[in-house]
Design a protein that fits this description.
This protein is α+β, with helices and mostly antiparallel strands and 249 residues long. The chain is 21% helix and 28% strand. The chain contains six helices and twelve strands. Helix 3 packs parallel to helix 4. The longest helix has 15 residues. The protein is globular. The N and C termini lie close together (12 Å).
């Protein structure tokens, strides 16, 4: 099973909207979490989109043409009500049944594509409020995947790393309250967090604000997790896709 998350930066430039197709072609995600995206059909061949329309869920941020989306390649996809009106488009969520992957086949799978809102309060407060709402929405016996652009460091940093600002208490919430672990950091223990965002004046700073969180019980099946980067991807957005691949026994 493959999972990917990708912030497209305001939907991408007109004439260069190949973000969805590039990730689908090169990584073949079973679950694709997308932020700052226009409607998925803006990026995909009409035949492909029409054949799989029920597998997509997208909602726009109020007053903007872009929002957050989820694509699930198989199973029955049921869009969920927004966590709250203010998070509509910032957080898109679905409930998936009959997904078919062994580790989730006997439970409902709740999937959240998160883009932490800007301009209202600190990102830490916004992500905590999102987690509060997710906790209230998800039944205790369900599997959960949360991924996206959190606009803050989504891992624990070592004393030697160039950037030190992180949120250990927030990372503890994922682990302690939801039983979730960051895929990239779990696959690369004791390694510095790589760059997933290049928005500052210094494009080399390793901001690591994009991530995928899954059940800790799945980590034994985690084969690898990567931050995808090439010349084309680096031109399409100021974020890079983050991926995680799992192998069942």
């Amino acid at each position: 099973m493959n999972i990917a998350t990708y912030n497209l930066r305001f939907g991408g430039k007109s004439g260069q909207r190949i973000h969805w197709q590039k990730v689908l072609d090169e990584f073949n995600p079973d679950i694709f979490l997308v932020q700052e995206t226009l409607p998925p059909q803006e990026y995909l061949p009409n035949g492909f989109y029409q054949a799989a329309a029920s597998q997509f869920h997208w909602a726009a941020v109020h007053g903007r043409p872009w929002g957050s989306a989820i694509y699930v390649s198989k199973g029955h996809v049921e869009p969920l009500e927004p966590l709250s009106p203010e998070f509509s488009g910032w957080v898109t969520s679905v409930k998936v049944s009959d997904f078919g992957w062994p580790m989730a086949e006997s439970q409902s799978l709740y999937i959240y594509s998160v883009h932490a809102p800007s301009g209202r309060s600190s990102y830490v407060k916004e992500v905590n409020r999102i987690l509060d709402a997710i906790k209230a929405q998800v039944p205790s016996d369900s599997q959960v995947i949360i991924g996206g652009d959190f606009n803050l460091t989504v891992g624990l940093r070592h004393p030697s790393e160039e950037l030190q600002k992180s949120q250990p208490k927030l990372m503890d919430r994922f682990r302690q309250e939801f039983g979730l672990m960051n895929c990239w950091q779990s696959a690369h223990p004791n390694q510095d967090l790589p760059q997933t965002l290049r928005w500052s004046n210094d494009k080399t700073k390793p901001f690591h604000c994009d991530g995928i969180f899954v059940s800790a019980s799945w980590l034994r099946y985690l084969a690898h997790a990567e931050v995808l980067s090439d010349e084309n991807l680096d031109e399409l957005s100021d974020h890079n896709p983050v991926t995680a691949s799992f192998e069942s026994l």
